[in-house]
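User: Okay, second chain of the day. Same drill as before: sequence in, structure tokens out.
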Amino acid sequence: MYVETKNTIQTINGVEKRLTHREERVISAPVIQNALGNNFQITGLTDSKEASNLALLLRAGALPAAIYPIEERTVGPTLGKKIFIGACSLAVGMGLILILMLFITVFWGNC
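Assistant: Same drill. Structure tokens below.
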């Protein structure tokens, strides 16, 4: 089944409103005879032209989908500062772990 959401903008009393409606139609109703794998057969198509059209639609990729923003945020320069501080703390922590591992290997590795 092909489902498409269409947007239209109408002006009502000087105010523009976005109206959406959903359009559904059946492209094809084939039946898969065997479980999906290397070999399977699809029946229910009338001719090879319908099969090639269906294959073209399937290969076309994702159908366009409407995107509705739910939330918007503005990111300021303080986020970059926090990321830099986090990266520095990660580097210091990894350095301390490396020093600890070298210390343990040198002093307790000979036991």
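Helices lie at 48-59, 77-108.

User: Thanks, on to the next one.
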